[in-house]
Design brief:
The chain has about 70 residues and is mainly alpha-helical. Helix content is about 50%, strand content about 0%. It is built from two helices and no strands. The longest helix has 19 residues. About 0% of the residues are buried.
């Protein structure tokens, strides 16, 4: 007689995401922490935004602008 497997869930495929597990609870952050994080992010962004644009990017932008005017 052939061996029969017990019924149950199919074997898991490691390439598929697991979607039936609940997400971990989101912890509430105090307004002070949110403000601190916001200030730090703004300072970092301002520093990056105020850096000069590299010459090679300006050259590329100028060439793209010229090409769009020709069309």
């Amino acid at each position: 007689m052939a061996d029969k497997k017990a019924p149950g869930p199919p074997p898991m495929n490691p390439n598929l995401p697991i979607v039936d597990q609940p997400s971990p609870p989101v912890k509430k952050r105090s307004p002070d922490i949110k403000d601190h994080i916001g200030r730090q992010l703004r300072a970092l962004y301002d520093e990056v935004a105020n850096q000069p644009v590299p010459d090679r990017f300006m050259d590329l932008l100028n060439r793209l602008d010229e090409k769009s005017r020709d069309e």
